[in-house]
Design goal:
Length: 511
């Protein structure tokens, strides 16, 4: 194994970036493939509760530490009529879902989603359809969901069994409206005006809403930057967030794993580009307000490895197996690195959604009538959500580097750190991107007082391609490493090749 020189950085509680907003650990449920149907919702399954929600899936969602869930899409929302999914089940229409060429039974809708949120202690994040619909339907949905009662739509919700308003705070103004694949795709100016007028009207119904304007559907979009500027130029004062979406994957014949593992470079540049654009518009408008970033679709997605639409001979099937990526150890290490990239910008990225939650590019997999299990990417997310709370500290690493084809020279170490000011605990999240060598890590701990290693959790292994499957659901799981020490004011640890690491430090005597 190659012997690397140490990567180093200094942590100091005086140099903070920002508080982690719990909304950073959100996820996403779309009516797509088997995310909802034969995923989290499967009446008749031995684990199904009275509402058809799988108890085993609910338990895994809680274990994952998901804080918010965006719903119902995604591309799906741009052709969706929310009214189809409320009221008595037997009266709900069956429709064609054009986005994913599937059959939509509407057995699962807003009420079922809110039940799911209540049972998993998750904050709902709704999207309105700005593809085929507009201001009026968005307003009607907010009235149905959030108005206490005494109007046609709020009384309808009550008649449907929800006496109390849902009180949904976070709303997305459409989905990926810059994308030519989107039903009702818009030019920047068209979307900007529609988003502004929809936002104004939605806030007339409920002034406490927090709204997310669609940013670009990817950093690589040709209109990136110009789109955000046009949208925010119209609705800067109407919205609280702008969205970012990105997925990273390898084409079937692409073997450039080093570039893939460095994809968080792209995440950080993307975030910085959006922050710059927001602040440029804010400065032009002389606004004191700062727009926050909602990274509401992100994940590893190897697009070529599973179908994105059903085969033509299948017509419009119910719950087809779409986007069912089976994740490897390397995918999990990158997932951790993508989270690190967002945490390093926690002052502006205050909401995010791992896309998606169940079966569809997901940390949780299920078999109809069978078990549910954790994919490899489950673990870094769950650990970041469990331990990545508090204040993010600045990390300026001095790390050995290597050259990648896509991103040029990159650090082998990708790291961030979070401190809990109440207990003095510090958690370091670190990825060793090097597939061939262990990376020694030295962290100078300045101004914390005495700290000791509580735990060093590692996700690593001999085979970057190792996966969890139905037959072998626990092939890749985290382990506890030994050897990390704090001596004087220096934390020393060794990061094994291609590994995700969580090093938890605590004050002696503090649990
Ligand atoms: O998450 C899968 C799809 O990716 C979403 O529906 C869409 O918004 C994005 O392009």
């Amino acid at each position: 194994m190659i012997q690397r020189s140490a990567a180093r950085f200094t942590l100091d509680p005086a140099f903070g970036i920002g508080e982690v907003n719990p909304r950073l650990y959100g996820s996403f449920v779309e009516h797509l493939g088997r995310c909802v149907y034969d995923g989290l919702y499967e009446p008749g399954h031995p684990e199904a509760d009275e509402a058809g929600l799988r108890r085993d899936v609910l338990a895994l969602v809680r274990e994952l530490g998901v804080t918010t869930v965006r719903y119902p899409g995604g591309n799906f929302v741009s052709g969706y009529r929310w009214e189809d999914g409320v009221g008595p089940l037997e009266q709900r229409p069956v429709r064609l879902d054009l986005a994913w060429h599937s059959l939509e039974t509407n057995r699962f809708g807003l009420g079922e989603f809110m039940d799911f949120c209540r049972k998993t202690d998750v904050e709902p994040m709704m999207a309105v359809n700005l593809g085929t619909r507009g201001v009026e339907d968005a307003v009607r949905l907010v009235e149905y969901a959030n108005h206490p009662g005494g109007t046609e739509l709020s009384d309808l919700r009550i008649a449907h069994g929800a006496e109390e308003p849902y009180g949904i705070r976070m709303w997305c103004l459409g989905n990926e409206m810059d994308g030519p694949w989107q039903i009702g795709h818009k030019k920047p100016g068209e979307y900007a005006r529609l988003a502004r007028e929809t936002a104004n009207a939605m806030k007339m119904v409920d002034g406490d809403l927090q709204l997310v304007a669609c940013g670009s559907s990817g950093f690589g979009m040709p209109t990136f930057g110009a789109w955000e500027a046009a949208v925010l130029g119209e609705c800067y004062e109407q919205v609280e967030y702008v969205s970012l979406h990105s997925y990273y994957g390898l084409a079937v014949d692409d073997t450039d794993l080093d570039s893939f593992l460095a994809s968080a470079e792209d995440v950080e540049r993307y975030i910085e580009g959006v922050v710059d654009t927001c602040d440029h518009i804010g400065a032009r408008l002389k606004s004191t307000k700062k727009i926050m970033l909602s990274y509401d679709e992100w994940n590893v997605w190897h697009v070529e490895r599973s179908p994105t639409t059903p085969p033509p001979e299948d017509g419009f099937p119910y719950a087809p197996r779409l986007l069912e990526n089976n994740y490897s150890l390397a995918d999990a290490v990158l997932t951790g690195s993508l989270l690190i990239g967002m945490l390093r910008h926690a002052d502006r990225v205050t909401a995010a959604s791992l896309a998606q939650l169940v079966n569809v590019i997901a940390p949780i997999m299920t078999e109809p009538g069978g078990p549910a299990w954790r994919q490899t990417i489950f673990y870094p997310f769950a650990q970041a959500s469990a331990f990545g709370r508090g204040r993010v500290l600045r990390v300026e690493a001095d790390s050995p580097r290597h050259t990648t084809e896509r991103f040029g020279e990159v650090d082998l170490l990708h790291a961030t750190a979070v401190t809990d000011d109440a207990t003095g605990a510090v958690t370091v999240f670190a990825v060793n991107r090097d597939r061939t060598g262990a990376l020694p890590l030295d962290v100078v701990l300045r101004g914390f007082g005495e700290l000791a290693v509580a735990e060093h959790l590692v996700l690593d292994g001999d085979d970057p391609d190792a996966r969890n499957t139905l037959d072998r659901p626990d092939r890749v799981t985290p382990r506890t490493a030994t050897g990390a020490t704090v001596s004087g004011d220096v934390l020393r640890a060794v990061l094994t090749p291609l590994s995700w690491n969580v090093i938890r430090l605590r004050r002696p005597g503090n649990g």
